[in-house]
Write a structure and sequence with these properties.
Number of helices: 3
CATH class: Alpha Beta
Structural class: alpha+beta
Number of strands: 4
Shape: globular
Largest sheet: 4 strands, antiparallel
Strand content: 25-35%
Strand order of the largest sheet: 2-3-1-4
Number of domains: 1
Oligomer: single chain
Radius of gyration: 14 Å
Length: 91
């Protein structure tokens, strides 16, 4: 599944921890936004790890946007680095 994850965390230390976790699951595309291609198992693990870090009393929030294959093809970018094609071909 393809998921766009955004977060708004006030505390610098917690925000850094969340950023590091997300880097191990996906591609950092903007300051608080990651794009991730995850299995259901990896998504469950990621969600559990993140839920242990956030402080609801501090108004921390993390949002998960699930993108279908059709919608992935409709993502438009202006500026920034072009997306990388990580497809591996064997000949």
């Amino acid at each position: 599944m393809y998921i766009i994850i955004s977060y708004d965390i006030k505390d610098n230390k917690r925000r850094t921890k969340i950023h590091q976790i997300l880097k191990s699951y996906g591609e950092w595309v903007q300051y608080s936004i990651f794009e991730c291609e995850l299995t259901e198992t990896n998504y469950a693990k990621l969600r559990l790890r993140l839920s242990k870090l956030i402080k609801k009393d501090d108004n921390d929030n993390i949002r998960f946007y699930f993108m279908c294959k059709c919608c992935q093809g409709k993502i438009e970018r202006i500026g920034g680095e072009l997306p990388r094609d990580n497809t591996i071909f064997f000949i």
